[in-house]
Amino acid sequence: GYDISKLLAKTGDTTFDIGFANTAVCKSAITYIDGDAGVLQYRGYPIEQLAEKSTFLETSYLVLYGELPTTEQLADFTEKISRHMVIDERLRELFRIFPRKSHPMPVLSAAITALSTFSRDTIGFEPDTIEAATHQLMAKVPTLAAYSFKNSTGTPTLFPDYSLSYIENFIRMSFGTVTEPYQFDDTITRALDVLLILHADHEQNCSTSTVRLVGSSQANLYASVSAGVHALSGPLHGGANQAVLEMLKQIRDDGVTVQDYLDKVKNKSDHTKLMGFGHRIYKNYDPRAAIIKKHADAILKARGGSDQLLDIALELEEAALSDDYFVERKLYPNVDFYTGLIYQAMGFPVDMFTVLFALGRLPGWIAQWREMVADPTNKIGRPRQIYVGHTKRDYVPMNER
Ligand code: ACO
């Protein structure tokens, strides 16, 4: 009922931009997206090439420092991270206080906040301190993520193993037992590596903007990353991978047809969305979804034949892409449409899906925070508003209300 143009006239130069759909808040040299063409590049390198040829740690180095590492640089980075994977015993005890069935996302965020209290010498804005905090987070977040998972399954935690790679360590700490040596499946290890590469950064999305906004007050890197985890948890952002799998299961279990489900989405009466579809920036096929779709097929076949949920997903995609509602609104599968199916095939329960996203996005959050604090033109983030409340009125005593 408000006349926005009149309200705007009152606020002078303020731009009214709900959801920051048209507002650039920083300059960044990390990630380039052309949403109309379906292009994604980290530091100029196409995501397709990185997914095919790189590893998550190498891509993390690229995202963080701007160049692909030499052999020596990568070995040094890997060594610095391996050295810090173990967490303080008292921090490990923290996991015992959470209820057994806690969702691992709030547990992860709480653990990252707690980690900052054990890492006080890495809190600050000197280059060495920032570097040390970067290594601490890159090294310890996989351990914390695996322990959040172990807490949710009620099984004992494992120490990291220095002889293993970054991804292998995380897989072993998630699924390994204290009694048996862990048997790796190379297809699964590589698929997780690729999935994390695809999530490493995505410019000013909701969680990254949160990291920057929190950090703009000169809050430390741990506090900013912990806030990013919370922002990622929502179903319209990282939580969508969990929501997609739940949607596919609901379609299967309710026995509804794909067309009936799409009709319900289009009807909009109960606000049902086709989860894993649509994106603020991509008005074309999300390039990450295209890569993941190929892997989904291979992994599901390797893990035991056809998967009913993948069939439903493929059918949903085909029907949506030839439906006027989705075509007119340029709604295509996004990164989350197929990831959940792969994570499930790897043995992760749905509650862990968004934690895996957080693990992948970690280098991006850190790189964006570092870029921001290194920018001398940076200012504290402080949006404006259009006030639509009461005009001035006088206090009413209690007995007259
Ligand atoms: N299903 C059905 N309709 C949709 C969907 C969807 N998934 N997404 C958008 N629309 C419709 C909207 O209802 C709107 O229709 P209208 O013009 O008739 O009002 C139109 O498309 C434009 O959508 P907006 O909501 O304005 O688009 P916005 O850019 O604000 O939202 C978002 C983007 C949040 C991703 C949205 O597409 C969505 O909710 N998708 C489902 C959740 C999801 O998959 N999120 C993951 C995003 S990727 C990531 O975070 C990693």
Automatic annotation (TrEMBL):
Catalytic residues, per the record, are 279, 336
- A Pfam family found in this protein is Citrate_synt
Q: Which GO terms describe its cellular component?
A: cytoplasm
Part of which pathway? Carbohydrate metabolism; tricarboxylic acid cycle; isocitrate from oxaloacetate: step 1/2
Determine the domain of life of the protein's source: Bacteria
The record, for Gene3D superfamilies, names:
2.20.28.60, Citrate Synthase, domain 1, Cytochrome P450-Terp, domain 2
Task: Give the catalysed reaction(s), semicolon-separated.
Answer: oxaloacetate + acetyl-CoA + H2O = citrate + CoA + H(+)
Q: Which GO terms describe its biological process?
A: tricarboxylic acid cycle
* Single GO MF annotation: citrate synthase activity
Keyword entries, A-Z: Acyltransferase, Transferase, Tricarboxylic acid cycle
Which InterPro entries does the record cross-reference, listed alphabetically? Answer: Citrate_synth-like_lrg_a-sub, Citrate_synth-like_sm_a-sub, Citrate_synthase, Citrate_synthase_AS, Citrate_synthase_bac-typ, Citrate_synthase_sf, Citrate_synthase_typ-I
**Similarity field:** Belongs to the citrate synthase family.
Q: Which NCBIfam families match?
A: cit_synth_I, PRK05614.1
Output this protein's name.
Citrate synthase
Organism this protein belongs to: Propioniciclava coleopterorum
Lineage, highest ranks first? Bacteria, Bacillati, Actinomycetota, Actinomycetes, Propionibacteriales
